What we know:
The complex is a heterodimer.
Chain A: H1 3-10, H2 13-23, H3 32-54, H4 57-81, H5 89-110, H6 117-141, H7 150-175, H8 182-208, H9 216-221
Helix pairs in contact in A: 2-3, 2-8, 3-4, 4-5, 4-6, 6-7, 7-8
Chain B: H1 3-79, H2 86-113, H3 116-121, H4 123-138, E1 141-145, H5 154-175, E2 179-187, E3 190-197, H6 204-210, H7 213-225, E4 229-234, E5 240-247
Parallel strand pairs in B: 1-2
Antiparallel strand pairs in B: 2-3, 3-5, 4-5
Helix pairs in contact in B: 1-2, 1-7, 4-5, 5-7
Amino acid sequence: xxxxxxxxxxxxxxxxxxxxxxxxxxxxxxxxxxxxxxxxxxxxxxxxxxxxxxxxxxxxxxxxxxxxxxxxxxxxxxxxxxxxxxxxxxxxxxxxxxxxxxxxxxxxxxxxxxxxxxxxxxxxxxxxxxxxxxxxxxxxxxxxxxxxxxxxxxxxxxxxxxxxxxxxxxxxxxxxxxxxxxxxxxxxxxxxxxxxxxxxxxxxxxxxxxxxxxxxxxxxxx
Amino acid sequence: xxxxxxxxxxxxxxxxxxxxxxxxxxxxxxxxxxxxxxxxxxxxxxxxxxxxxxxxxxxxxxxxxxxxxxxxxxxxxxxxxxxxxxxxxxxxxxxxxxxxxxxxxxxxxxxxxxxxxxxxxxxxxxxxxxxxxxxxxxxxxxxxxxxxxxxxxxxxxxxxxxxxxxxxxxxxxxxxxxxxxxxxxxxxxxxxxxxxxxxxxxxxxxxxxxxxxxxxxxxxxxxxxxxxxxxxxxxxxxxxxxxxxxxx
Lengths: 222, 248
């Protein structure tokens, strides 16, 4: 798989972004962090490609490191909106604070340009746990078709992507410290490319099914 | 890749495939069980609601047709009595007035249990009649807005009517509101039923978590059997707003 093909496949997040822009004003506001996340993901894919092509590998790595904490915070905000932390702003703040502090510690220790696999694994596990909890709630309480439930699809996407992401990160952490060929690195990363493609399509479907905003005041205005 | 790396990569592929298969199996199983549980849940609620409605219909009919006519006959008989003593005549008149009031009350109860207007003239007229009759009794101003003709199945009409009755009673009993707005409109193949009151409101999430109460459960169940969705927006001191989205 060439880098160009890999880049084009990663742009599949664009479907979710486009649908999100079209539906932005009509949808339930609690899903906004998810739309912001898809937008940021698309932006990071493009910026990473530009930096990679321009020969700035350090800036490319720094972008990914910064993206990891942004990604976590946006998803945590989404789960908070869905009532995961008992709708408590304090618990939400503590979760964000704890992960930001951990991220900052790793950045200080390893520098911003080297990938922090420990942090990536940690936040991936956290997101998978958040998703499984929400996923269970949706399965128990959903009274319609579950395949048309945006929460279910988003949680499913997170579980799939971050499970494979943990496998890849753990592999990189254990193997890449030794001398390995470029082909092996590329092949291992391909796992992320395929799971990313699948999840991006799931996200696009999820954005289609995000419930409409219940705007009571506008309804009673007429 | 050298043979060692090749072997490592193959092992990794096997691990990823196993994880993928487990995830896939997990997802398919969850979806199947959710569908089965949903079907059973809907059948159960439908059976409960059908039993309730049939029982209401039977009681309404018994009250109206049997007790009502029996009381009318009693009234006719005591009015036909020939009494010369004025005090006794006064007792008879009072009894006759009491019987009239009992007959009136019986009709009211019977109508609440199964409104004739709903069966004969449809949902819109039944709601108009219900709000017009109930507003002065409970001292609440009810505004009903519906500019379209509602062509719905009887099953949906009864459920929507019950939802409005439930919300009306909740508004009086719990919200202590003096204004209730009810709006119905059909758009994009769905019926939107929206209500808003100026009552004391409540913390919806806390209420649902602690004990949703029979009223809220009833609203939820009726929305579910119609394949609809209930949304409630309420905060202490800011009134309560319900929205029902029902496919038509």
